[in-house]
Amino acid sequence: MQHDRVQPLNYCAHAIEDLKVWAAKFHHDAPKSAQVMLRIIEMLRHSTKFILPNRCNLVTPDEMRQAHLDLARLPFPCVAFEVPYEQEIGLDPLPEIGGLPQLHATRRIALCWEPHPSYELLPGLNDIVQKFPDGGAFVVPIYWSPFDSKWNLGIGGSFHPYKNELRELDMSEQLPVSRIANEALIEAGRGTARSKQFRSEPFYLLPELFDMQLAETHNGDQAKAFAQIHLDAHDEEMFMIQACSVINCANVTTAELPAPKMLNKKREAKGKQPFFTYKVLQLAEEKREAGKNASGQHASPRMHLRRGHLRRLESKTVWVKATMVNASSSDGVVVKDYAVPPRPAGSKPELKGV
Fold first, then answer.
1. What is the pLDDT of residues 214-262, one digit of tens each?
2. From the DSSP assignment, how many helices (H) and strands (E) are in the chain?
3. Radius of gyration of the chain from its Cα atoms, rounded to whole angstroms
4. Largest alpha-carbon pair distance within the chain?
5. I want to staple 249 with a disulfide (CB 3.0 to 4.6 A). Which of 2, 33, 197, 319 is the partner?
6. What is the pTM of this model?
7. Which pairing describes strands 167-168 and 196-197: parallel, antiparallel, or unpaired?
8. Pick from 200, 198, 197: which is nearest to 186 by CA?
9. Long-range contacts of 295-298 (CB under 8 A, 24+ apart)
10. Torsion 273-279-281-282 (CA) sign
């Protein structure tokens, strides 16, 4: 980011280029996985793309409430959230956590989509809707690691049911997959035994690679293999919950960062994936102020929301944003409340084809 204005990350375009290479590499030895990668590439191309702040710092982890889960609905059928993770740059390799291998990922994409025949990447994947008739979102991590300087697709992801409840569960009450993943999060300092949990279902996308990892890394222990997938998708699922709970606030709008036409012509001439148009979250009042001050020339939108939280009142939910003011003020902070109406039941935007 430069001068408090949003700069395009262009993660999706670079991920597409690397996933093409991976798909070609696995074409003979893992054809099902290669085919899924090609489908993921098409979903990345057609997804609605958002740029989020570093580590998606929209909600303090300890501030996660039921209101966030209630508002966590995808604004479009297929969405890609791009998130830099800059605090992991230059760090030493991560040790295993709870026997599960870990890897730094400094650039991340949370690819999210709602169940639909066009997006069924493996036969039977959408059958999960039978368990969750109120629907939900598939969330898959796509990440760039400084250790191989390549974009990678997670072996699987998590399905986040829309009808979800945040509650405190004793470790003894949890299913083996959840218990293993949560114990690993606690060991890593990213959770506590008292942390509240919500329902989430891990799934695999790359069949041959999952079978290989199951045999070679987890000694045939399916609970550990799915716990690894759950753990690997944890951050991306949290990105989705945070971003969607904010997107669905009435006072939050989006500014558009258009694709660079001249640069894309050069990229296309070289056979490279063109860059995409992005959406950036902004408070409605900040967008109006930017419009008033506009000089007639296009400028990148200012960086969107910083940390805040939702507040439930008797008849509405409000987004509360803490804004620093001048040093001569009494406490240095002004708190603003905004009305947040619930999303109309059953409302869905038009589906984008892939």
1. 999 889 988 888 888 988 999 999 999 999 998 888 778 889 999 999 9
2. 9, 14
3. 21
4. 68
5. 319
6. 0.82
7. antiparallel
8. 197
9. 298/258
10. positive
